[in-house]
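## Example record

The block below lists the input lines for one assembly entry, exactly as stored, with component labels intact.
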Amino acid sequence: MRLRDKVALVTGAASGIGRATAILFAEEGASVFLTDVNEEAGRAAALSIREQGGGATFLTADMSQESECCRVVEACVNVFGRVDTLVNNAGRFVMKGVEATPDDWQMVMATNVFGYAYMMRYAAEDMRKHGGGSIVNVASVSSVIAQPQMATYNASKGAVLQLTRCAALDLEPDHIRVNCVCPGLIWTGQVQKMAEEAGFTREQAEAEFGKEQIMKRAAEPIEAAYPILFLASEESSFCTGSALYVDGGWTTQ
Ligand SMILES: NC(=O)c1ccc[n+]([C@@H]2O[C@H](COP(=O)([O-])OP(=O)(O)OC[C@H]3O[C@@H](n4cnc5c(N)ncnc54)[C@H](O)[C@@H]3O)[C@@H](O)[C@H]2O)c1
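Predicted structure tokens for the full assembly:
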């Protein structure tokens, strides 16, 4: 029970890494506030936590809107009394090269960068009232490597890495730790969609998309959720501003 009596707010919690994280956090004793644009899947995720005896509430919200970020934190505080842990996970997969349009840039930066920043701002306002907290941002291997025709996504994830470091510095006086995970290939709905678009079976997709990793497979979402749990919990009490690579060795070579 590594998060006993803690309140955790997880964005993008309706599916994939966010859903696995919300479920794991509840198993570890946290009351979990889930949010996502996908109302049906988000409600189902919260319900399945409650059915297992955990505490969970879902609110539909769009993390690309600053007012929605503020509303989500307020709602979490109203329901559970405070925010101890924030997991910024909601992400848009806009993959375009330098020919990307203003709409492409707006779409990817609004959710992946500005949304993370506003969530940190509002969550930190609450955390400092009760002595601190922990923030985990979901970045990517794409934060630190170049990939073809992915300038939009990679620029957004590079920004997440720097947001993490700068926020760690700024929020340390308030006893708020800020870290990020950098996943490699995780088998989520998004990756499955990309596989289908390319006409790949799962096996083919793992071989092709995971070919740069030492471990040439896709991880399950829970394999990203455990490292997020580590950074969220007191087990990582001396970690701040750090990036934990959860990438099957992708960035070693
Ligand atoms: N799957 C991978 O291989 C991989 C690798 C590296 C990083 N990531 C990152 O992990 C995070 C989770 O992705 P995933 O793979 O689990 O994908 P996913 O599509 O299963 O989950 C993303 C969730 O975010 C929600 N979302 C998207 N935009 C939103 C918005 N504006 N407001 C609220 N919710 C929004 C979606 O509805 C979805 O439920 C993302 O930040 C992604 O960039 C994933």
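The mean pLDDT is 98. The radius of gyration is 17 Å.
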